[in-house]
Amino acid sequence: MFGTKTISISRKLTLMNMLVSGTALVLACLAFIVFDVISFREARMRNLSTQAQVIASNTVSALLFDDSQSAHNTLSALQAAPNILSAEIFLPDDQLFASYSRDPSWQSQPPLALKQGQAESSWTENEQMLLVRKIEVDGKTIATVFIRSDMKDLHRRFLRYVLIAGIVLAASLLATLLLSSFVRRAVAQPIIDLSDVAKAVSKDKNYSVRATSTRGPTEVSILFDAFNEMLGQIQSNEIELRNARDTLEQHVIERTAELAAANKELEAFSYSVSHDLRAPLRGIDGFSQALIEDYGDRLDPTGIDYLKRVRSATQHMSHLIDDLLNLSQLTRTEMRREKVDLSALAQTIAEGLQREDPARSVEFVIARHLSIQGDAPLLRIVMVNLIGNAWKYSSAHAHSRIEFGTTQYQNRPAYFVRDDGAGFDPRYADRLFGAFQRLHATNEFPGTGIGLATVQRIILRHGGQVWAEGAIERGATFYFTL
Amino acid sequence: MNITNSAEPDVILLVEDNPDDEALTLRALRKNNVKNKVVVARDGAQALDYLFGTGSFAGRDTTVLPQVVFLDLKLPKVDGLSVLRELRADPRTRMLPVVILTSSSEEQDKISGYGLGANSYVRKPVDFEQFIDAIQHLGLYWLILNEALPTRRI
Question: Which of A220, A288, A298, A453 is an S-S bond match for A216, by CB 3.0 to 4.6 Å?
Answer without folding.
Answer: A220
